[in-house]
Amino acid sequence: MKNFLIVARSFSDIHEKYVNVIRDYIKAHGGMCILDLDTCSDSSDEPISVADDVQCIITVGGDGTVVRVAQNITNRNVPIVGLNCGHLGYLCDMTVDNIEHCLDQLLNDNYKLDTRMMLEGDCSNDSGNHFRALNDIVVAPVAAGLYVLNLTVKVNGIQLYNHNCDGLIVATPTGSTAYNLSANGPIVSPHADCLILTPINPHTLNSRSIILASSDEVEVTIEARHDEDDPQANIVYDGTLRQTLKKGEKLRIYQSDTTSHMVMLENVNFLERIRARMQEI
Amino acid sequence: MKNFLIVARSFSDIHEKYVNVIRDYIKAHGGMCILDLDTCSDSSDEPISVADDVQCIITVGGDGTVVRVAQNITNRNVPIVGLNCGHLGYLCDMTVDNIEHCLDQLLNDNYKLDTRMMLEGDCSNDSGNHFRALNDIVVAPVAAGLYVLNLTVKVNGIQLYNHNCDGLIVATPTGSTAYNLSANGPIVSPHADCLILTPINPHTLNSRSIILASSDEVEVTIEARHDEDDPQANIVYDGTLRQTLKKGEKLRIYQSDTTSHMVMLENVNFLERIRARMQEI
Amino acid sequence: MKNFLIVARSFSDIHEKYVNVIRDYIKAHGGMCILDLDTCSDSSDEPISVADDVQCIITVGGDGTVVRVAQNITNRNVPIVGLNCGHLGYLCDMTVDNIEHCLDQLLNDNYKLDTRMMLEGDCSNDSGNHFRALNDIVVAPVAAGLYVLNLTVKVNGIQLYNHNCDGLIVATPTGSTAYNLSANGPIVSPHADCLILTPINPHTLNSRSIILASSDEVEVTIEARHDEDDPQANIVYDGTLRQTLKKGEKLRIYQSDTTSHMVMLENVNFLERIRARMQEI
Amino acid sequence: MKNFLIVARSFSDIHEKYVNVIRDYIKAHGGMCILDLDTCSDSSDEPISVADDVQCIITVGGDGTVVRVAQNITNRNVPIVGLNCGHLGYLCDMTVDNIEHCLDQLLNDNYKLDTRMMLEGDCSNDSGNHFRALNDIVVAPVAAGLYVLNLTVKVNGIQLYNHNCDGLIVATPTGSTAYNLSANGPIVSPHADCLILTPINPHTLNSRSIILASSDEVEVTIEARHDEDDPQANIVYDGTLRQTLKKGEKLRIYQSDTTSHMVMLENVNFLERIRARMQEI
């Protein structure tokens, strides 16, 4: 590959430094670069349109930056490789110590691609928009700790449960190590073909994470609670607030036709990252 | 006891009906009543001042109404007995089926008192106010699922942990079956003398509820996260928002000098309620 | 289908009664039956050889009987349908109330088949035998609560963790509601294509169930603990003890080439059974 | 204090080396020592009778050695201090790096005592013996992963639950970080006054650790399972098998009149040990 788009989280000198390192190295070795430094903050929901000749996107930041790019690309399924400038992550194969080695592999077409499923969500009150997520789609109360949601969850049209809870996570295997892990959900290998349904703080003793087939469709209905006139839920895609739902409104979540393509450069695989995480302070 | 204050959640005909039933029965049997129908909605934070001659407060609603009254009484430690008009609860000994029997016991001084510890919280940014809770004091993000908190938790001045999380619950034994149960904390008998410290959705594998001595003091500091300029936490007392904290500000939580006195009328004890709850649909 | 093998747990009058009901009905409607009443107790490990003309096996007992049959058939992949004589289960479509209706469907070829993956295990000390499981393969100490195991777990040759623990469960989706559920593992739809790796009482804070791709291979090594001279583990296939391992010996667990075929008669699907279970006392 | 009993796990050179170091130092500084090198292996259940003039017991080994000594002392409540030769523990204040400093403190009476509650168990089939535990009393199946127990658990005579499970742990706060931690129970400060009731692998979704008052009495009955003729449970005190129970037999567990006295030498308290453990690999 010779033509790269470099996308960075914009707010830090450290990111800018590594953007320059990458750009200079690519140019010095016969490649070309486009830079995009402003569209990818944590809460950004700007669509990213990738020019026709771009063969690969290099993100500078961390797992969050990779997720943001995967979520917001609108036009093309370009392979993504992440440079991790911070904490241990799961999605970034480049670190500040192996940049040149990794760029050599990219420039010499010495890599594999890992395809990751994505989720898509439709709201019943939607005016036409539906959104995508690489990690998870989360139904959350507008104010945590104050208002409890009452959610009815159906899978393929069949009611699974109705809970008073703080919300619900529908995660991909990629997202199993994100919010799902915090909510006590299982860790899932990216090559297991499934969805993870994890309730957030359900007020019941008999709840548990449920692993569904990736082809299953989840429907969440915001029910009224006996003592609230105006229940509302935020619908959060990969950490970005996209929609709100009122009482009686529904959200459908299902596997997207779009997939993400992660460049695999190093021989560090998912299990080694899990092991490292289990040993982390 | 002859002199009662009846406090009800105000928004429903059913509550008003039972208030009248209770009042009429007490008057017909030589007692006296004061009514207070407006101060006790779920989110109320009005202080409740109890007149000198009131010997007992009867609440009409559910566990939430008992909690609200216990939390907001300012001047006197009056015994409280709850009428439960709704779902199975832990704090209400009266049900719609045993009202007259229970009132007879009260009027004939045939009851026991159960003393429950309460919590108190002080914010470092506080202008003099500190608040009380019967169930729990919760540190929660201003928007769940969107912003993660970074909290440092100390006990008696010694750091216990620093977590990225959705928040923290410090609960009394009474509150162990409230939000603490949703966040996967243990169930605690009201007669165990302890505090429960339960993190809410910590982004780590190695967290667990920790039971402290009731005399231990918990301090929570709102830390800055690397990618957020304005972290803020809600401090929620028994489900009522009382304070907000900014980066660097602290909350101290400790056992209150004030206790609550619950009237014990029936022989149904805590363990039978736990068993019923474990068998609940 | 016209030719059936009926297999029952042998120790009870109730099972014999229903065996007779089924046999009589099948014969009266033009079918044929072979009975096998002795090979299928809970701890049976007798191979079941199915005659050439048998088209379907009907089990009389419960989920355990279905599992035992699926595990022990040696020669042919015959569809299995279970009659549930006891508690709510996941694998039996026939109940004592719908026997005739179900038999009509079988006799009229009005059914679907559900294919379930199975596991296979090889011990490094093995003299040629390897065993199969429909639910799970469990590594357990020879005496629980007394001797802790130290296990090293690798996936596809890469070390995942080393734990002091009571053991390890490798479960299929079918087995997710069996021992895996007790050990706090997630519930998994039978149509999710994966393995579940759940440690049993690991003496660590940072463990969690891990969902693997069904093609992943798990290797468990029995390590020496510092203070034990003779560590030993039982290897338990679907609840039946098959092998024991000594210090340094290994067990490989992987997806079997053999699958089980469950007859689907009713429209009650897995999710409705999960919902019923969540509401069970 | 001048008169010490040194108790060591007997099977290792390293333990003998430190026994000699301690003895020589004490003698050189005017104290006296008795050695006991054979009674304290992990599975030992020999009663330890402490001579009248012994003022303090020094254990050489780890937490397990402290527990074994506390459990088996029959005659006197002598303070115990542990030397930790191995992994991070909770009960040992001496490490191989601070031996002389700690011995100076002991010899100069510069220490505090920490009183720890103990448990006692009575079996209904008992011929007069009852046993004590510092950490926990565990009801476990005679063979894990093979036979499930059906247990009825009562507290103060009131039924709490009936579970199919692998067993039950009743732990002291001291024991909360032992087997209880493995079975997903909460961590409990030694100064919280309570018991912890944690089921082991219950085959139900709606179970949870329950914290009881230290004065509560737990009764466990071994019930028959429908498909087993001879259910049996091991009763394990601090990891030592003491009794077995048959169907219909009961075990009563309650706070012992005896307490253990741990010498506090260092300013490292329980919370710092918990923090270290949470950060451990």
From TrEMBL, chains A, B, C, D:
SUPFAM superfamilies, alphabetized: NAD kinase/diacylglycerol kinase-like
Q: Name one GO molecular function term.
A: NAD+ kinase activity
> Where is it found, in Gene Ontology cellular component terms?
cytoplasm
Binding of NAD(+), residues? 63-64, 68, 135-136, 166, 177-182
Gene3D superfamilies assigned: Probable inorganic polyphosphate/atp-NAD kinase, domain 1 (3.40.50.10330), Probable inorganic polyphosphate/atp-NAD kinase, domain 2 (2.60.200.30)
Q: Catalytic site residues? A: 63
Q: Where does the record locate the signal sequence feature?
A: none
- Which Pfam families is this protein grouped with? NAD_kinase, NAD_kinase_C
Alphabetically ordered keywords of this record: ATP-binding, Cytoplasm, Kinase, NAD, NADP, Nucleotide-binding, Transferase
Q: Among its keywords, does the record have Repressor?
A: no
Q: What is its main location?
A: cytoplasm
Task: Kindly state which reaction or reactions the protein catalyses.
Answer: NAD(+) + ATP = ADP + NADP(+) + H(+)
Report the EC number(s), separated by commas if there are several. 2.7.1.23
Q: Which InterPro entries does the entry link to?
A: ATP-NAD_kinase_N, ATP-NAD_kinase_PpnK-typ_C, NAD/diacylglycerol_kinase_sf, NADK
One of its GO biological process terms is: NADP+ biosynthetic process
Per its Swiss-Prot or TrEMBL entry, what cofactor is needed?
a divalent metal cation
Compartments (UniProt record)? Cytoplasm
- The keyword Kinase belongs to this UniProt entry's keyword annotation: yes
Give the UniProt family note.
Belongs to the NAD kinase family.
Function description: Involved in the regulation of the intracellular balance of NAD and NADP, and is a key enzyme in the biosynthesis of NADP. Catalyzes specifically the phosphorylation on 2'-hydroxyl of the adenosine moiety of NAD to yield NADP.
Q: Which HAMAP family match?
A: NAD_kinase (MF_00361)
> What is this protein's name?
NAD kinase
- Which species does the entry assign this protein to? Pseudobutyrivibrio xylanivorans DSM 14809
